[in-house]
Amino acid sequence: MMNEPSFQPHNCGWIEVICGGMFSGKTEELIRRARRAQIAGQRVVIVKPPIDKRYDDEMVVSHNLTKLPSMAAETADQIVLLTGNAQVVCIDEAQFFDNRLIEVANTLANDGKRVLIAGLDMDYLGRPFEPMPQLLAIAEYVTKLHAICAESGAIAHYSQRIVNSEDRILVGETDAYEPRARLCFRPPVDTRKGRPLVKVNNEETSNS
Questions:
Q1: Which of 16, 93, 151, 178 is catalytic?
Q2: Domains, the chain, ranges and CATH?
Q3: Residue 178 annotated to the active site
Q4: Neighbour tally for 75: CB within 10 Å
Q5: Which residues on neighbouring strands pair with residue 88, listed in sequence order?
Q6: pLDDT tens digits along 166-205
C-alpha cells in the first residue's frame, strides 16, 4: 500500500515511514521521494547508520544501485545536528538506530521538517524491529512495501535468513537473506529456495 502526502500547509512538518521486508524496495522508494523533493527545489539531507556500508560509505544505495549522497549518523541525536537547514530529512535503515530516533523524528517534524524514514519492520525471527513499531505509530503517513517470495512467488513480507548466525543485526543482501511469504517463512535459518539475484554493477547501471 502506498500512502504519500499530496498536500501539506507551508512550514508544517510530518513523518512518513516506509517499511517492509528485505528486497521490497524501501530504499528505492526513499530515494524516489527525496529526488522529487530536490526537483521541487527543497533542501534534502539523507542520513544512514555507519554500519550500512554494503554498497558505498557516502551514498545511500538501493539494491538495484539507485543512489543519492548521504551522511552517516553515529547516533539518532546526531541527525538533528546534521540536518539543521534541511526542509526534508531522509533516514534510511532506521532499524539500526536506537529508540532515541522516536524523539528525534518528532523533534524534526515539530520544527516543520518533512521526515522520511525507511526501515525493516521485522527482524529475521519475524519479531517487530525497534524502533520501527513506535515510528509507525507516530507517523502521519505509512507505506508498507512487499517483495516476491523466493519459494512460492506470493507476496512476501518476511526476511528469511539463509546463513548461520544468531546476531539480530546482520547487515547483508542476497548472500544472507531472501524474501519469503508467511507460509514459507522458517526462522531462524533456512536453506536458499530461490536463485540468487543477479547483482548489477556500476558500469552496467551507468550504461543502461
A1: 93
A2: 14-145 (3.40.50.300)
A3: no
A4: 14
A5: 44, 114
A6: 998 887 666 899 999 999 999 999 999 987 765 544 433 3
